[in-house]
Design brief:
81 residues, 1 helix, 33% helix, mainly alpha
Length: 81
């Protein structure tokens, strides 16, 4: 193996290890939660619907022109938008 090839492999290894250390440091700073890297702040709005016995729900319609809408799992027997 030539001297130039050894130097290239050593430099590549150093860059790979350094990049991995920086990435793991950033991940640790975010408490190992990828959601902490998000720059979007989500606003939670809660609306309580009437019980289905009084007026059955046939559909849930959410209209938002400028933002995405996500359905999130809930800890209770309900759903969150």
């Amino acid at each position: 193996m030539s001297r130039a090839r050894k130097v290239v492999l050593i430099v590549a290894t150093i860059l790979l290890v350094t990049g991995s250390a920086i990435g793991m440091g950033a991940f640790a700073a975010a408490n190992f939660n990828l959601a902490n890297f998000s720059t979007v702040s989500w606003e939670q709005t809660t609306d309580t619907l009437a019980p289905e016995a009084e007026s059955p729900h046939t559909a849930v319609v959410v209209t938002e022109g400028s933002h995405g809408v996500r359905f999130m799992p809930s800890e209770t027997d309900s759903f969150e938008v």
